[in-house]
Structure formats: structure tokens, C-alpha cells
Description:
alpha+beta, Methenyltetrahydromethanopterin Cyclohydrolase, Chain A, domain 2, 9 helices, 26% strand
Amino acid sequence: MAGLGSVSxxxxxxxxxxxxxxxxxxxxxxxxxxxxxxxxxxxxxxxxFAMASGPGRALIRAEELYDSLAWEERSDRAVLxxxxxxxxxxxxxxxxxxxxxxxxxxxxxxxxxxxxPVGAVQVAARVVEVSLxxxxxxxxxxxxxxxxxxxxxxPPVAADDGEAxxxxxxxxxxxxxxxxxxxxxxxxxxxxxxxxxASASPDHGEPFAAVLERxxxxxxxxxxxxxxxxxxxxxxxxxxxxxxxxxxxxxxxxRSFWGEPAE
Length: 263
């Protein structure tokens, strides 16, 4: 989040079901979440592939997303997090440094497989980010979002990265809860709130692993509007009124995390 947000750890309890969880807060949502945290750059070079997140993306600017953000970055250092199982080669790192416009010695690449504790954290901690990205996809001006707070359960570490991708996404889609403070009129928020939760997508309702398998394991074949929290609440700074939609779905979380409903 480029130092513009914070993550803390705790637990959540829904209908008596206790789960470890994290909380995310930021007063710079568009910059921290979309200009930095969003895993939006597909690093695909010399046989190496990873989804890249972090502030170094703002130097590379490979994504059209930056055309709609009021943010430009100039730096002689770059940091990126790669969601991958193996380390990049020196050649791949040199390619990233060149794209970022920094010397190779000034580039830091963090690598986290999804099926690890840190891999689970870095996906679950995007719970606010996905709500910002959903707003952007719906054509809403994300610069109007003044602050964001979210909680998300931390899924148990999976046996492999494929299973972990399912669990970490389910944590957000079926357990994530987000509150955004927005400089907008009641009418705008009342209209957009029902469109924000993951439940607004036709792909919602079953564990993400099943959705991904049906899509031929191609993320880009999945409805992009699925990627959002389970529950979202918007508060207008102009009126003080709040508008919410969505809910936590424990049944799907239990199937995803533990294979069957907990007794």
C-alpha cells in the first residue's frame, strides 16, 4: 500500500464461528489501493509469469488504470510483490528494472506463493482494494472515496497454490466486509451500493475454485464484477447517511476452508 495504509490482525466471529482475520485502513484509498496494492501488472517475460502488485507499478504504468488516477510517480527505487512459486532470474529482474526506469540494484522484488501464510495475507488484505476497483469498473470516480476500512477472514494455508487461490478469493468474496466514506450525494450512493458486493455477479454463489475451473482456469473468463467484498457500506460525507448491500456467506466459506460445514 506504499505506506499509505495499515493492516492489523485479530479475529472475527459470525454466528459463533471463530476465524482469524485482518483489518485494513487507509485515508488515501485510490492511491494506496489502486495505484499500489492492486495486482494489476502481468509480468510475463522469458518464460516467467507472475501477477505483480506494489508501488513499482506506478513507475511502470503498464495499465490503463493509471490514465484515470490523479497520480504520477517519480523515484530512483522500485518495490514490487510477485505472486509466484519461484524466484525470477537475474534477466527477468533486469527487465523489471528497465520497465520501472531504475537501476537493477535499486529494485526490490518480494516473492510470495499463494499457499503460504504471507500469500494468504497479501490477498485477503486487498479487501478494500477490490471495492475500489469495483467502483472504478462501474464508472464511479474513485478519487471521491475519502477513506476505507475493511475486515477479511484469513483462510487456512492450502496444500498447493491452486487450492490457495480458491480459498483466498473466497475469503474476500464471501467473508470480506468494507466501509467506505465517500464525497457523493445520497442518490449516487443509493444507486451504486447494490452493485458493489460480489453477490451482484452471476458467478457468485459457489467456491471460487469451482468458478475458476468452469472458466478453464482463465481469470479473464470470469465476470470481472465478481471480484468484490461480500458486504459493502457507503457513507456520504455530505449527508452522513449510509447505504449498504451484501452479506457474509458462511456456508461457502466453510466449504472452501474446511471442505464441509462446521458442526
